[in-house]
Backbone:
């Protein structure tokens, strides 16, 4: 989860700095959080509160509508809904648009609300969308 928020370069810097600073010492989550905040140059309470101190996980439901464009592309309006009881989770959520021509297009959204709607243009008709493919986000998916 942290790697999706930070990106690869900063994620590996966090790990490297944490290893360097804490070799052969007892460490706590607070020590790791401090390194993450130093690298990210921002408060990371929200991340550690929701994924480590909190309970539960996001429960996503998705839906979409498709409209064929004059240029034979398709305008897709997609809605991702968090349906869990309790607080909204902030997460980078990958979404795969599997097209009828066999190609897959990935879009990653920064989901911070109960209902998140966005549009994407794709070159062929959508066969299905897959939210958090390969369990890339700790969550439950409802059909």
Residues:
């Amino acid at each position: 989860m942290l790697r999706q928020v930070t990106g690869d370069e900063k994620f590996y810097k966090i790990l490297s700095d944490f290893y360097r600073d804490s070799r052969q010492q007892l460490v706590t989550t607070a020590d790791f959080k401090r390194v993450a905040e130093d690298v990210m140059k921002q408060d990371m309470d929200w991340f550690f509160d929701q994924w480590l101190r909190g309970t539960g996980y996001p429960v996503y439901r998705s839906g979409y509508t498709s409209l064929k464009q004059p240029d034979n592309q398709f305008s897709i309006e997609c809605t991702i809904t968090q349906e869990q009881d309790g607080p909204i989770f902030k997460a980078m959520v990958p979404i795969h648009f599997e097209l009828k021509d066999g190609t897959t297009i990935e879009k990653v959204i920064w989901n911070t609300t109960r209902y998140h709607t966005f549009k994407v243009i794709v070159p062929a008709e959508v066969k299905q969308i897959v939210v958090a493919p390969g369990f890339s986000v700790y969550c439950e998916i409802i059909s």
